[in-house]
Write a structure and sequence with these properties.
binds calcium ion; alpha/beta; Arc Repressor Mutant, subunit A; 232 residues; 21% strand; five-stranded parallel beta sheet; Rossmann fold; single chain; elongated; four-stranded antiparallel beta sheet; 2 domains
Length: 232
Amino acid sequence: MQRIVVIEDEEQVLEVVKAYLEKDGYDVYAATRGKDGLALFYKNNPHLIILDLMLPDISGEEICKQIRKQSNIPILMLTAKSAVEERIAGLGLGADDYLVKPFSPKELLMRIRTVLRRSMPTQLLADELSFYRDDLRINSVEHKVYKKGQDANLTPAEYKLLMLFIRNPNQVFSRDHLIDKVFGMDFEGSDRTVDAHIKNIRRKIEDDSKNPKYIVTVFGIGYKFEGERGDS
Ligand code: CA
């Protein structure tokens, strides 16, 4: 079941959205305050966030920024503002789509499906993933990676990078694309930064960093993930 966190301070809107999503088969966690919404995000590892721009405590923009620091999770923004600049500002902060109030629940469901489909082209990410019979185990609820049962101690940036690869197996990523996806547009990094992160990840998850079986170098282009799924 796909989990959705809805953060919306207008209780009437929240109730309607929650009812429609639940009817459509989603597992819904609702909050009327930004702080509670963020807590739900950290706790429940949702597949999507529906976020109102205007909240009483933390602004939707700020929440979006906080979430983007550690996750590529799709964010659908709700707003009463219809100014074009506001929308662009919201999308610049990393929202995947925008819906201007008032909207129809049908429209909302359509947008959700589109955003979810776009963000997870291959498969839904399970809470726990295993590669090569538990050689590598990833718990996406805990945000932990285990190599042969031991915590690999990945940094948040390394985790984010690894998850991007895992979500897109066999897709080749250029270094520029990785910088953009993982560190954001305003990141002052270079190709070397990416290489350094990959080197560190390899040291932590590969048996032999010189002969990687997870993150493989594609010469002249970048990197791709080749780990084979398999539980023990
Ligand atoms: Ca509001």
